[in-house]
Amino acid sequence: MSDSGEAIQARTREIERMAVEARGEAVSEHGEVRVVAAAGGRIEELDLRMSAFELSGVELGEVIVSTLRTAEEQLDAQLTSAIQAAMGSLGAFAEEEERR
């Protein structure tokens, strides 16, 4: 296999590893709810502080959903940045290979 093929496979494995390991974390505005989200829409952790139980069921649901969305946005931004960095370095590698 060529060096560039090996580099592509290595980058692909790295991106896959990042997607599996990446987590997004968010805490609600007043600290009642903390959420850790993983790729694929999985909720890894959902912590409710005692103050969360002072909210109505509807309010608590809204805070949970909002906090989860923030965690997912943070996760998406983290993955996008990591993938762009991996692809950018792969592009630089490919350009160097072409010059040889």
Structure description:
The protein is an alpha+beta fold and 100 residues long. It has a single domain, classed as Nucleoid-associated protein YbaB-like domain (Ybab, Chain: A, 2-Layer Sandwich), CATH 3.30.1310.10. The chain has 2 helices and 3 strands. It has helices at 3-21, 57-99, and strands at 23-27, 33-38, 42-48. A 3-stranded antiparallel sheet has the order 1-2-3. Strand 1 (23-27) and strand 2 (33-38) form a beta hairpin.
**Poorly predicted spans:** none
* CATH topology label: Ybab, Chain: A
CATH superfamily: Nucleoid-associated protein YbaB-like domain
User: What is the annotated CATH architecture?
Assistant: 2-Layer Sandwich
SS-based class: alpha+beta
Give the N-terminus to C-terminus distance in angstroms.
17 Å
CATH class: Alpha Beta
How are the strands ordered across the major sheet?
Answer: 1-2-3
Biggest sheet, in brief? 3 strands, antiparallel
Number of domains: 1
Instruction: Estimate the strand proportion.
Output: 15-25%
The residue-averaged pLDDT reads 86
- The Cα radius of gyration reads 19 Å
Number of strands: 3
CA-based shape: rod-shaped
- Annotation field: number of helices: 2
What is the N-to-C succession of helices and strands? HEEEH
Please give the share of residues in helix. 55-70%
